[in-house]
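Please, structure for the following, as tokens.
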Amino acid sequence: MNSKTEITMKDIAEALGLSRSTVSRALQGHPHISADTKAQVMDEAKRLGYQYNAMAASLRKKKSNTIGLIVPRISRYYQSAVITAIQNRLHENRYNLMICQSNESPEIEKELVDALFASRVEGLIVSTTLYTTDFSVFDIFARSGRPLVFFDRTPKSYPAHKIQGDDYKGGYLAADHLLRQGCRNIAYIGGATTCSIYRERYDGYRDALANYGIVPDEEMVFFHDLTPENAVKTFDGILRMKKELDAIFAGNDTIALALVTHAKKLGMRLPDELKIVGYSNDPLTDVVNPSITSVEQHPYEVGEQSASLMLGLIGGTIKPGKNYISVTIPVELVERESSQKMADTVII
């Protein structure tokens, strides 16, 4: 059994001849405590081995200064860029960030929502899984009055604050670009349609084709988890059908990169024989050969907007009343080598 007695603020106060309240404020960096007193308190706390009990403090103050964040996959460029922006903005305002990963599992997502709520986070920021259809799991935050903000993958019918990209326009820009490059047989590989962003990207793709009098070939449209393995399998399946194919619109850059690599292994000349456009403007798209045309989503702005909205809701500087705030971040197409039009291409 550990016989050591836990060091408390009272011990620091007695050692320095200060009141406990002064020590408490000094440890929290209160502006009314002098720099000299703060330094003395911090030095004595270190000497005695004092450890700040954040959980106990949050129970006393009913304030944890911690925000929960749930994302599907931390390893993806878009999500990691958003996380960085959220972390930076929260840190500027003396808030901590508790990051969780759902691994695209609605079951894990629900467990994380419950765990973060029990951990007394002051608010929750979420990008849902591909397969989330029951948003009632988030009701626990709404009922408690703790702010809830969705970003990127947002619910369409569930009432909530949202920061999202213009995925319809992104899909339209990508397909329209390929059409302007002379392509007419354009395959689409997107994520599961249970996820709003892939439905909207497909709608944009479909409407761009419609402007050219083209109806999407159902055998050239695919919806599945966007992994490199699935992308290669789908690509090989298209080639086995021996259909005319002059372009692929990839639902994200992870599979766009996989498609470029696989096409080169097959000896295909890009962009002469096949043009490829991705989505999210991953930095890797600019360094591969050929570099990949992609849709820029501005993830850092998405993260900053998500964190700023959360801070405003917590601090009361944003008072939406009975309405919910919805912000759409513009997207743009970044043209690169993978979709270049050859000089002798004739558009009919």
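Residues 9-52 form a domain with the 434 Repressor (Amino-terminal Domain) fold (CATH 1.10.260.40). The first helix runs from residue 9 to 16.
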